[in-house]
Amino acid sequence: MVDAQQQSQFMQAAIDEARLGLEEGGIPIGSVIVHAGRIIGRGHNRRVQQGSVVLHGEMDAFENAGRQDARVYAQATLYTTLSPCAMCSGAILLYGIREVVVGENRTFMGEEALLRERGVQVTVLQDAQCIDLMTRFIRERPALWNEDIGQESDR
């Protein structure tokens, strides 16, 4: 079981990833995958940087964690700065992640209900840093945000 200090440390690692993505000109969403008290995969949204349609923060963390035994993912916790979208939630379910810690869901409500329905423990922190990062980004770059979440930019 992870204590509050470790949870804060791992969420901070995800926030650091989100900030790195923003510095690279991308969308500030970061994620880390933790197994047995250590980060085995980290990533940030790199859709813009890589011209990718799938490299959300969680997907990048999975990619960087690499091929793992199913037991590793089943015992892992995924930390993400923003509520996971349908694609990322699908990967969470596919790889058997049982616990997800979400930085915030005020700026975007992902598929938390689906995850919970499928037995995933979802904890939402409403972390001020995560809220601030996304609120500022959405205000400053609404067209890119709408592209990332699949909404038309003229809505």
From TrEMBL:
Entry keyword RNA-binding: no
Compartmental location: Cytoplasm
Record's keyword terms, sorted: Cytoplasm, Hydrolase, Metal-binding, Zinc
Cofactor(s) recorded in Swiss-Prot or TrEMBL: Zn(2+)
Chief subcellular location: cytoplasm
PANTHER family, per database record: CYTOSINE DEAMINASE (PTHR11079:SF190), CYTOSINE DEAMINASE FAMILY MEMBER (PTHR11079)
Subunit structure of this chain's protein: Homodimer.
Protein name: Nucleoside deaminase
Organism encoding this protein: Pseudomonas bharatica CSV86
